[in-house]
Design goal:
heterodimer, A: five-stranded parallel beta sheet, two-stranded antiparallel sheet, B: alpha/beta, Rossmann fold, 6 strands, about 40% helix
Chain lengths: ~170, ~220
Amino acid sequence: MRIIVHDLCSPEWQAANIPVAEQDVIVSDDGTLKNCIGCFGCWVKTPGICVIHDGYQHMGAYLGTADTLLLISRNCCGSQSPFVKSVLDRSIGYIHPNFRTINGEMHHRKRFSNTLKLHAIFYGDQTDFEKNTAEALVQAQAVNLAAKSVKVDFIDTLQQLSGVIA
Amino acid sequence: MKRYPGTIALICGSPKQTGSSSAAVLDRLREKLPEKTPITDIHIAAKLTAENAELLKSCDTLLFAFPLYVDGIPGHLLRALMQLEPLMRSEQRVYGIINCGFFEGRQCQTAARILENWAARSSCNYMGAIGLGTGGMLTLFDKYGEGPLKPIETRLTALVADIISGQTIGFEHTQASLPKIVYKLAVEMNWRRSAKRNGLKSADLKRKPLPPSRQ
């Protein structure tokens, strides 16, 4: 099952014609997303579930049942866009607050037993430096999400989207 | 001859209203600035207000202090930066102080690069950033400023000198001076204490909740 987080408006999403399976979960911007408030309630109050009940509070739990996390985002200065990034910020219930060491660096432990395939697709006007930054960002996110594989694609137009999604 | 730093905006990008590490670092830095430095304090905890956007337009030096979220800039601050992008002026200088809860300050480097890219798009001058690890300790300057937090105190003092002289700094990083294992155990003990205050047991921290469709 895939979790697909994207920042496309409805006509763009329809036009992209991305094949979606019945069990896939599509996370899009319905205008209700609140930003993470840094309270760590998803770790120490209701572990795995965000305390902000705006419809996006179960992101951690959804990721815990998924095999793939697909991010489709405008490249904003080498980052995911504010919406996609805010969804990721609200997803840290997927990981455990305690630490482990990977390649000599401190990272969080896993909460769930699944391991994700992380696929990020960046579209829009993007410089080489922004592409390099986005690549580094997703690689770092893959480590913290304990992903088993990571793939980053850059496309110029949304017409290329279905071509890079397996 | 250009005088640095002009009016300096100390911008706290933490979503926390009070008690954030970003605010603590800015408080410490403020104490190190020369007495008559004109300062504008801005807190972007959620949406950027029109009033704050106007204030930021008028400042000469912008210092963004924010926490590392999922290896990048917090979503709400990123949204604010996108709104600010067309408003910035070519003479404005941008510095960053990024803190993370991990031990190693170097883990903030990608977020610094995103800030650098934003400055490039905004046509203002990116002057560099520092990455601070051991973020869980940064509200404890009064207690540990002369002890484990000394490397961070020293780095902030150097940053003030760089800002005043208009120096670029690239990306520099540091963290508190204590063994990594001690920091790890202290932070994890804090998680257990917080859980206990919320009526949970330590084992509850490992819960694996199901999403609504799978319950």
